[in-house]
TrEMBL record, chains A, B:
Family the entry assigns: Belongs to the RecR family.
UniProt keyword terms in alphabetical order: DNA damage, DNA recombination, DNA repair, Metal-binding, Zinc, Zinc-finger
Record Pfam families: RecR_C, RecR_HhH, RecR_ZnF, Toprim_4
Residues in Toprim domain copies: 81-176
PROSITE patterns in the cross-refs: RECR, TOPRIM
InterPro entries listed in its UniProt record: DNA_Rcmb_RecR, Rcmb_RecR, Rcmb_RecR_Znf, TOPRIM_dom, TOPRIM_RecR
HAMAP family given in the database record: RecR
Transmembrane segments: none
Keyword match Nucleotide-binding: no
Protein name as it appears in the record: Recombination protein RecR
GO molecular function, one term: zinc ion binding
Zinc finger (C4-type): 58-73
Lineage of source species: Bacteria, Pseudomonadati, Thermodesulfobacteriota, Desulfobulbia, Desulfobulbales
One record GO biological process: DNA repair
Organism of origin: Desulfoprunum benzoelyticum
Length: 200, 200
């Protein structure tokens, strides 16, 4: 017996393809959408339809943008001599939210993961090397995640950029703000000791 | 500075209106949708657009259905003399999944909640009383949730149906299958003792 109407089942099926959303959550979301006015579902649908056609990659830093170059690359008030290398556009948003970075970006669109067949050619490494080779970059700040693939990607980039006449930096690794030292894991604490800075 | 492209921001805004999805999860979902082929976003949009126009309420049991009456109400193999009263269409799906109920349903579309201004007129109580008054129903199984508003709704329905020449039943309340008795909360255990059944 078809208890779930086909139109509802189709939406549940599509929603459950999203990351972190299983069939149960998808069902809950779909039933909630159905209970609300049709206009809200139509608006959500319209924003989905417009998404890919409105957004492209910035040809300079490869972030998602509606213009090319993106607002950051086009901003004369930002310092194009510093390039912050991140894995994904979401990481750029996180860095921007801090308000403490005024340089440009370079989005790799992934991390090196040989087991998944992702080598340097699959992510925007060549484009980064070209930007550095052009001579316009004075500092490359590597801001990949502090995970195994993130660290591996950072090591690879450091290796490739070793000979370039630039300053090569990485995000500091240490105790998160507001954290009680006794709850910090030993690897983080070791990194914090290793990277200790002079107090005044 | 507009770091999030407007088209992406619009989708994030719309996604974060869904229940249990905050701005952070909405951003993660939207970026994931953007990274995948446009065809998947279009298909999700199409299923959202088609939803409300394809689905209506069954005029007999008020579940979501593409046909009227719904597949359950129209099925001659099901026993229309028993009506299971549930809060929402999702509850009907849960009961159907057990495979151990072969009667009809009645969806209230809510529970009594005086503080939110939801009285008997706001949910499908009148329609249930009319179904019972028509004489076609022999048993009403009240299957509202075992929550405070669910119990209040059940009490109200029992009160209104007291005089009707029908069998009035409720779901059994007790220890969940597979649960260790020492971890059962005292209210559930008390209910299980109260509702104990003769063994063989």
């Amino acid at each position: 017996m078809q208890v779930v109407p086909p139109a509802l089942d189709r939406l549940i099926e599509n929603l459950s393809r999203l990351p972190g959303i299983g069939r149960k959550t998808a069902t809950r979301l779909a039933l909630n959408i159905l209970r609300r006015p049709a206009a809200q579902a139509i608006e959500l649908a319209a924003s989905l339809t417009a998404l890919h056609s409105a957004i492209q990659l910035c040809s300079c830093c490869f972030t998602f943008s509606e213009s090319d170059p993106c607002a950051i690359c086009a901003d004369p008030k930002r310092n194009g001599e510093i390039v912050c290398v991140v894995e994904q556009p979401g990481d750029l948003m996180a860095v921007e939210k801090t308000g403490s970075y005024r340089g440009h970006y370079h989005i790799l669109h992934g991390v090196l993961s040989p087991l998944d067949g992702i080598g340097p050619e699959e992510i925007k490494v060549r484009e980064l090397l070209a930007r550095v080779a052009s001579g316009a970059v004075r500092e490359v700040l590597i801001a990949t995640s502090s995970t195994v693939p993130g660290e591996a990607t950072a090591s690879y980039l450091i290796d490739r950029l070793q000979g370039a006449p630039i300053l090569l930096t990485r995000l500091a690794c240490g105790i998160p703000m507001g954290m009680d030292i006794k709850y910090a894991d030993k690897h983080t604490l070791a990194k914090a000791i290793e990277g200790r800075a002079t107090a005044r």
